[in-house]
Amino acid sequence: DRYAVFLRMMVEWCNLKALKQAGRGHDPAGVSATKEGEIVVLCPACPHPGKNVPKTLEDISPGNRWIYSLFLAIDANFRLKCRLVSSDDRDPVLSQGWGYFIKESNYKKSNCVSHNAVNMADTKSSKGLAAMGVSTVVCTRHDMRLANGIGDLQKGEKYLNMDYIVFSALSHCSSIPSVNFSYDIACQWHKKLWHHVSTALPLWLHLSSTQQYRFFIPKFHPAAHIAACQMTFSFNWSPYVGWTDGEAPEHSWADINCIAASTKEMAPGTR
């Protein structure tokens, strides 16, 4: 039976292909010098200073900052569980932090109360599971994953997990002057966000204080919130956001949930 060997070959081939497409073979320092998030495919329409927008955006007038805004959607999927079937030592990840998933070694060290995401954070059973689900940060305008914008959840949709994943992704966009967050519990998440960042996250995730942040609830979710949240965090009542619905993560969840039973049995190196 060569099936297990063939699967290992496929994992190695996919890793080499990603490194090749990212041009890592031309670096004199070699593959080992690859930085976190360096082999991902960037969203071609989002602002990337020095590529599709001016390299320096610090001189942009406040009235024109919205033109260079980044729209990010945050969400978690608890169908994408992972059983405790192996370990990092037995099945190591070949591209640790180089792609869309965050670097696990660093990650693991590190009143809308009626909303399901808040209530279930402490009650979901984690027995026999290495991960209870997956959290992601997506370009909500173009449905593209961000570098280091995906991570496993150990015990529900904890703020600490979400903060680390969000700011890991945002660390690659630190020069963008304005960021719009779409999150189904943004009304709660934003309240003590900066306190959590300053006290719980490592220094390299403390971003520039010159960035402007706005928080929204995606358009399918307001019915689960009180009237004050529906008004304050609505895309419909805010300027400079167009017809953004903020539901980008839900689009891909619908597709990937079909293979959740298969990914559930995968070890860390193949997940």
Structural account:
The protein is of the alpha/beta class and 271 residues long. It has nine helices and seven strands, in the order αββααβββαβααβααα. Helices cover 27% and strands 15% of the residues. Mean pLDDT is 85; it is low at 111-121. The protein has helices at residues 3-21, 104-109, 116-119, 159-170, 186-189, 193-200, 227-232, 248-256, 260-263; strands at residues 70-77, 82-83, 129-131, 133-139, 144-153, 178-183, 212-216.
Straight-line N-to-C gap: 22 Å
Number of helices: 9
Tell me the fraction of residues in β-strands, as a range: 15-25%
Question: What structural class do the secondary elements suggest?
Answer: alpha/beta
Counting DSSP E segments of at least 2 residues, the number of strands comes to: 7
- For the largest sheet, list the strands in their spatial order: 5-4-1-6-7
What Rg, in angstroms, do the CA atoms define? Answer: 19 Å
Order of helices and strands: HEEHHEEEHEHHEHHH
Q: Provide the low-confidence segments as ranges.
A: 111-121
Apparent shape: globular
Largest sheet: 5 strands, mixed
- Report the helical percentage: 25-40%
On the 0 to 100 scale, the average pLDDT is 85
